[in-house]
Sequence to fold (435 residues):
Amino acid sequence: MRCRLKNYCQYTALSSSIILAIYYVTSFKPQNYAPVVNISGNPICKWPPTTVKDRHQWKSGFDISICILPNFNEVMSSGVKRYRVKGLFWGSHSKHSVSFEELAELPRSMWTKVKYPEVYKTYPQDVPLRQIVKDIKAGKPVSFIPKYNFPIRLLVTSKSVCHAGSKHDLVLVIKSSVFRWDIRNSFREFMRLENKRYPSLNVGYVFSVGIPRQHGGRLFNRDGHVMNLTGPDGDQLEAFDGRAAEVMEKLNEEIAIHDDIVMADYEDTYYNLTFKTVTNYRWMSAFCGAENVKLFMTMDDDHRVNLSMVDAFMKRIPEKKRRYSTFGYIANYDLAYRSPLKKWFLSYSEFPWDKMYPYLRGFAQIIGPGVVDDMAIGTAYTRYNYAPEDVFLGMVAYKLGIPIFNENSMFDHDLYVETNKEGRPAMVALSKHFL
Fold:
């Protein structure tokens, strides 16, 4: 997303989920987003599942919460972790310690002397994540229970992309809003022409959507502040408020015609982008498989991709680096918005520090297949009730030690014009630059 943390993802107090059966709206019920330990009566509890049939529960949706085997003899205390103040701030001689929650209460004058990146390590959950990931992938018990393993269910997935072991050179996951039917049709036409222009790549693409918000329109509760979501996103929510069944009818028609939708049971709003992102990683991990895909890419639906440049990228970047890294436009130490009058508002309790860890902007990211499983598991151990989705992924990558690299052919929104004076070709840019 754009500079200075403009995308925030949150499950809000005004949101409620809609429970669906595949392809049909059955009823609307509130769903409480609370962490779960998913063992589901499954004799093989690991991630990713050996096959999707390991956790096939399509009558009520396919459960993509991470399956955890707790080691009850060694489960570590879930008590509040504390940090020495002098270890987080330069020049401090304090003997006191603080929790992550208490960091927001410290005088703001102290934050001019904060130690980066040490302070980022306090972001919940501070656990030995690399070892945990290794154990979960091997189906072994773990000593730390994830606090952010929220129940998310896939309601619809494609039968032509990442299905039954299908192989792809590139899998594109397009982040789209439930209301953007015309944008998706435009993207489909672009991909039809792009595949015809460059047929040597086997490309699969899906649109990632949630379910329509039942009530609330454009109003959200962000950390005690009532936010009025402005712009097209808010306009659409207001226009379709109370019309969820109508929206689902159109989506069901689209699904039947195109078979390119991945739908999960979170409410599809601007502030739930992180739920969409977690869904995307779990789907890529469980349904596609690292061994079946050479490269993953996530992208906003208002951007486009040049397949010939993707092929050139794959040939230019050494295979090991390409498989075990992520690539995009790096945001270096973006600043948080603190004004509750802005839709990008981020409170001190959400992120007490002002400078974010370097992360890849969310408009488009290239993801090596070798890190998808680790990232999918890591999302269950990384707080995301309030985090912007791209900042959130940056924190997951930081905790896992996954390298991020800048790719100067990927342009976020207006940066193609602002920073590309020499007119070099774009692998990713806004759709208007591909006309």
